[in-house]
Amino acid sequence: MTQRVLTGITTTGTPHLGNYVGAIRPAIAASRKPGVESFLFLADYHALVKCDEPARVERSRMELAVTWLAAGLDPARVTFYRQSDVPEITELTWLLTCVTAKGQMNRAHAYKAATDANEAAGAETDDGVSMGLFCYPILMAADILMFNAHKVPVGRDQVQHIEMARDIAQRFNHLFGAADKPHFVLPEAVIEEHVATLPGLDGRKMSKSYDNTIPLFEGGPKALTDAIARIVTDSRLPGEPKETEGSALVMIHDAFAKPEEREAFRQDLKAGLGWGDAKKRLAELIERDIGPLRARYDELMAHPERVEEALQEGARKARAVATPFLAQLRDAVGLRRMHALASPAATAKAAPAKAALPVFKQYREADGRFFFKLTDAAGAVLLQSEGFDQPRDAGAWVSRFKKEGAAALAGAPVALKGEAQAVSAALDLLAASQE
Ligand code: TRP
């Protein structure tokens, strides 16, 4: 079966050399592999969460689209689209919002970072927090689940969002799908461990937020050489041997050089090559890769109608998948054409059998003590508690298991009666199905 790989890029910035080496170049290489069906999109609805400057969103969408196309993304192979051109995604967002626990969103890192900062500053907890920021992970889950992606390449900071997408998918499947025919594939994050993080002008990670970036195409070769001139080096003079280890200049050179060129560059620096000349060589090396792409970039920037056409075509391909799938999901939740309803009894019979859930039972023994046990849908005992003097103590443990799932097992006053893995799975399933 082909693997569906999907990723989104938030349209708030101008692509720089770090984006090219860390994300664009490897994603394009990966999209050329056989057996992979790639979906790549501009997350322009996500951009609105962070940015309320229309001109910036507009410019970034254009620059990003053109950069990906110029860098070699083949829209015939990859489904390349704007999130906002696929209305099914926002419609799905609502279906998912209705099965997402608010408590889970409270724990999202981006939201927590905002509320923690507010609390530290003595402000209202939710000061400056929009519902967009709060619900950001649900929109992202819809991006992924709409296309039933198997793999989602992301940075480490996004892993929690993929886990949330899995949870939401699981809950929707449980509520509205048959056990043997789930609606959604559970997506997996792919973290690009081996992908180099390019250092910026000051040696820290190249990032817009550090203002240490080298532009990729914008500003032409002049902007590139100007930025390279600002890469921080030590004060050793031409003729003096240079330290190559840990040098940002050398690391950026590595990202574009062939192995033998890397070695030669190091040797020459150790033999006294001046930093000025080294920068000139670096500029030429990058231009060797980027130059031909820049010509395509400039060409496309001058022809926005071609970019628009490519994205419209991408949206058509994306919607060819999304439209029928959303129809299936609408039907699953009960949004259907009017037709004569079966009598309630018949409906109950006709309803697809839900995956039966394990159940907790609380009871009192002849000795007067209170117990609980967990049984699977067929009645087999999975977990047996010790006796409690007070019924509310037994009840508190049951609530905790329902909330935390298998995580509550450690230290709990219970004995496992089934296989550990089966018990954990049953507890997690039950926790995932709670309102
Ligand atoms: N939130 C992601 C980021 O900031 C971008 C994104 C939006 C995304 N939707 C996605 C990534 C779906 C992967 C899959 O990097």
Provide a quick synopsis of the model.
The chain has 435 residues and is an alpha/beta fold. The protein is built from 16 helices and nine strands. Helix 9 packs antiparallel against helix 12 (275-301).
CATH class of the largest domain: Alpha Beta
* Class derived from helix and strand content: alpha/beta
CATH topology type of the largest domain: Rossmann fold
- Looking at the structure, what is the overall shape? globular
Strand order of the largest sheet: 6-7-8-9
Would you kindly provide a written description of the structure presented here, covering whatever features stand out?
The chain has helices at residues 17-31, 44-50, 54-70, 87-97, 102-106, 109-120, 131-145, 159-176, 220-229, 248-256, 259-270, 275-301, 304-333, 344-350, 391-404, 420-432, and strands at residues 3-10, 36-43, 79-82, 151-154, 188-191, 359-364, 370-375, 381-385, 414-416. The protein has 435 residues and is α/β, with parallel strands linked by helices. It folds into three domains: 3-194, 3-Layer(aba) Sandwich (Rossmann fold); 208-301, Tyrosyl-Transfer RNA Synthetase; 347-434, no CATH class. Bound molecules: tryptophan (TRP).
